[in-house]
């Protein structure tokens, strides 16, 4: 005979269990899907779960699930095999050409099956990333995790990106990132449905890409003997350690292939005519003064830039020949920013060039430089992207794409001139700026870009007409690494602001909700905890 007390405890336990089971499902995905229709119940992965490719789907579609399958294998011990039929305990892949874009997908998660629809492998890949985010964070573990229910909430998700260009940049020149670190970064971009990696490969402080015709670019240009750095007392001090590194062309092909499997295109950046000291240290004959130069160890803007004499164009074309052959994408970023005109103003060859081409001044020489390189690349089937200074001077070639970084004005002007535009304004999207005003932040370059500011940025400038606004391809955050000397420090500056970037690139402005984002971010943090990512916790104090 049970006592009354025992019965009451029994009733309490039942009620609590009921409350837990009927608790609303949560859909903690970043970027937030455009539409979620909640449902009750869950689908649970186990060793019998299969991936079913319906008729009409090529076997490659199964490859789009490779990251999810890899995580299921490592953390859950589940081998997600592919079959051509099956009705229960399955993920059914179904072709759907009616969706808005090749990146769109639809997920229907039911208790005994998941139906994934997409028109293209990219859509299937994004569906798989959403499933990965819905799984318990232990899915990120590289070792087998016991006693985890590998469940995702039932519901229907209809999803499509707002912008076609969703980018993250990385400066590997001020401080080097190894090939493996770059691949790790690409993994993180893919997890958040970012589809472009802007690889900033050349600078005053280093040249990082092997060019077979000009071996000294990396033999000399990839290394520097000293670096001006902060010490712990935040005073500037020379660090006399010789540092450097570069990517061979084989390394680059490997990274391109790695990114492609994750539906990420790479935009390589070869800086010209400024930010060129490392190249000039290797080949001083392509400067105005003849040098000599050493690879820079200070940060900033330097007067020694590429000279506009004929031989320099031959040199740059030799470099761009190899870059164009290496990267299988239509666009090459040619820099164009922060090019002082001092040397050109005093250089006989540059002044002769100005006369011969009928240019008014050194600003027009800058546009001559950019357009000439643009025409050369056009002959190789490539188009150029440049920082907003490429609007300087006298008429930019029409199919050049402008990256607006000095605020949004360059982007607005470019869109009005009919150029396609990528918005990357420093006051919202420079991740080398401080993210917190708390004491104890590591030294940053300056500025203040808390995650909320990133989140609130609307990539389409309000002053554009709808026709002009169609030129806004998308949005990107930049990671300049002057004050990010190592991978953990870079992670601290990138995460979690990258999640806000991913969401503003994906979700239409009218669907954004910062409090809701903050809530979902907590779930993402659990994934990052398992991965050991050194993300900033500044948001807890905001
Ligand atoms: C830039 O930040 N100089 C493009
Ligand atoms: Zn010159």
């Amino acid at each position: 005979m049970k006592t009354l007390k025992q019965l009451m405890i029994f009733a309490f336990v039942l009620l609590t269990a009921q409350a837990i089971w009927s608790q609303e499902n949560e859909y903690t995905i970043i970027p937030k899907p455009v539409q979620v229709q909640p449902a009750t119940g869950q689908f649970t992965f186990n060793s019998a779960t299969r991936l079913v490719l319906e008729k009409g789907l090529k076997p490659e579609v199964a490859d789009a699930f490779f990251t999810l399958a890899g995580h299921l294998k490592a953390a859950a011990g589940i081998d997600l095999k592919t079959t051509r039929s099956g009705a229960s305990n399955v993920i059914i892949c179904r072709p759907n050409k009616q969706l808005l874009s090749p990146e769109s997908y639809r997920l229907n998660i039911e208790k005994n099956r998941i139906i994934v629809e997409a028109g293209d492998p990219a859509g299937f890949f994004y569906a798989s990333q959403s499933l990965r985010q819905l799984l318990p964070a232990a899915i990120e573990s590289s070792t087998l995790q016991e006693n985890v229910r590998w469940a995702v909430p039932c519901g229907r998700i209809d999803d499509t990106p707002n912008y076609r260009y969703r980018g993250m940049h990385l400066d590997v020149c001020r401080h080097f990132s190894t090939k493996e670190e770059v691949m790790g970064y690409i993994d993180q971009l893919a997890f958040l449905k970012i589809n472009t990696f802007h690889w900033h490969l050349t600078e005053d402080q280093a040249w990082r890409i092997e060019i077979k015709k000009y071996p000294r670019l990396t033999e000399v240009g990839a290394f520097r003997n000293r670096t001006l750095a902060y010490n712990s007392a935040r005073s500037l001090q020379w660090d006399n350690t010789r540092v450097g590194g570069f990517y061979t062309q084989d390394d680059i092909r490997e990274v391109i292939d790695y990114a492609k499997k994750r539906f990420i295109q790479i935009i390589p950046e070869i800086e010209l005519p400024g930010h060129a000291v490392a190249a000039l240290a290797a080949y001083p004959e392509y400067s105005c003064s003849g040098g000599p130069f050493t690879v820079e160890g200070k940060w900033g803007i330097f007067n020694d830039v590429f000279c506009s004499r004929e031989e320099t164009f031959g040199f740059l074309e030799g470099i761009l020949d190899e870059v164009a052959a290496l990267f299988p994408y239509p666009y090459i970023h040619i820099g164009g920013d922060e090019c002082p005109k001092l040397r050109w103003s005093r250089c006989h060859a540059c002044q002769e060039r100005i006369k011969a081409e009928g240019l008014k001044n050194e600003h027009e020489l800058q546009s001559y430089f950019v357009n000439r390189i643009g025409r050369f690349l056009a002959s190789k089937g490539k188009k150029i992207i440049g920082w907003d200074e490429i609007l300087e001077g006298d008429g930019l070639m029409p199919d050049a794409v402008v990256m607006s970084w000095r605020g949004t004005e360059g982007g607005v002007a470019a869109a009005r001139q009919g150029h396609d535009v990528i918005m990357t304004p420093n006051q919202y999207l420079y991740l080398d700026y401080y993210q917190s005003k708390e004491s104890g932040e590591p030294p940053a370059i300056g500025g203040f870009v808390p995650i909320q500011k990133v989140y609130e940025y609307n990539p389409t400038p309000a002053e554009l007409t709808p026709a002009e606004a169609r030129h806004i391809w998308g949005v990107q955050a930049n990671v300049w690494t002057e004050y990010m000397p190592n991978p953990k420090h870079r992670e601290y500056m990138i995460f979690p602001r990258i999640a806000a970037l991913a969401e503003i690139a994906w979700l239409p402005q009218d669907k954004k909700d910062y409090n809701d984002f903050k809530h979902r971010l907590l779930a993402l943090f659990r994934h990052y905890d398992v991965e050991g990512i050194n993300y900033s916790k500044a948001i807890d104090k905001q």
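The two ends are 56 Å apart (CA to CA). Residues 288, 307-309, 344, 347, 349-350 surround zinc ion (ligand 2) (CB under 6 Å).
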